[in-house]
């Protein structure tokens, strides 16, 4: 049997803030739906659950701690998965809004985007003649003129108030090679301690393209900056690139992230009916490659997490 360090961590990003209700009837929107799909994803093999909140009435992204409190404790009680709360929220949220629930919950993990960037799916709006809710079309089209903000000062603030003060560790979301150098800057400054968990993201307009060569480039750059034993590499492929890039990342020794935040599909032209469907699919692929799947406790050991009992959830 492989040691924990040789196993593959499956992260599942359950709902996100990019896709809108019109795009899939299976996208979880209410606290009940988010909890149900997150629990099923954990049962299917996801060791880490990456969580956003949505307005229970119309599904728009929400940073309201009261909404998070309607599903996060339920997930905690039903699974032993690592709960990972977004600090990204959406491009329309302030830093204070994005940090409101993470600071309350003090979770084992939070996501942390390693830079300000253009982040958009606005071309997708052309696919839809009708929208389920009035907010969706201007929300998607408006991404063309918005920037996701995470300045060096913002990142330093998050590292202090969540990392240093709360003992939370991070899923460092890197959308381009420059984000790796930003991460290295904070490591060199002594503000981040290993082991690092680097989530390399491919296929988002405004970030790195979903080319196999880019996966290799990110991996070799991280090797150079942090040393091959100094970090954990993970791959996120957006949209139709999900499973192929994840498979490549696993072959390179990395971990993987699935979920309806990242792709609404299971196969070409076939919407995923749940997050768990994607977890089960990547789990089958990994097992066919003779790779073992990390349990939540394996992930805690591999990433040096503080443990569930030290959180405010």
From TrEMBL:
Coiled coil: none
Cofactor(s) the record lists: Zn(2+)
Pfam families: BKACE (PF05853)
Keywords: Metal-binding, Transferase, Zinc
Claim: Metal-binding is one of the keywords in the record: yes
The species this protein was found in: Piscinibacter koreensis
One example GO MF annotation: metal ion binding
Name the record gives this protein: 3-keto-5-aminohexanoate cleavage protein
